[in-house]
Backbone:
């Protein structure tokens, strides 16, 4: 399988955090890039992940998700 571009909407919520944790533990799921999306309140915050490094939360919109 070719590496995928993955985006998680609601990355700072309970489910988003769980998905990030699962992706960090999974060795067989090829990810080329990981983008994290959240609300205005969360946008700009950074989340430190062990596998993907420091990722800045982006404000979610259809346009940004399609980039």
Residues:
């Amino acid at each position: 399988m070719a590496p995928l571009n993955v985006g998680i909407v609601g990355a700072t919520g309970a489910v988003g955090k769980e998905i990030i944790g699962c992706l960090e533990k999974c060795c067989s799921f090829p990810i080329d890039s990981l983008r994290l999306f959240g609300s205005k309140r969360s946008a700009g915050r950074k989340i430190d992940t062990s596998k993907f490094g420091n990722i800045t939360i982006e404000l979610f919109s259809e346009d940004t998700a399609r980039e």
In short: The longest strand covers residues 31-38. Strands lie at 4-9, 31-38, 46-49, 53-59.
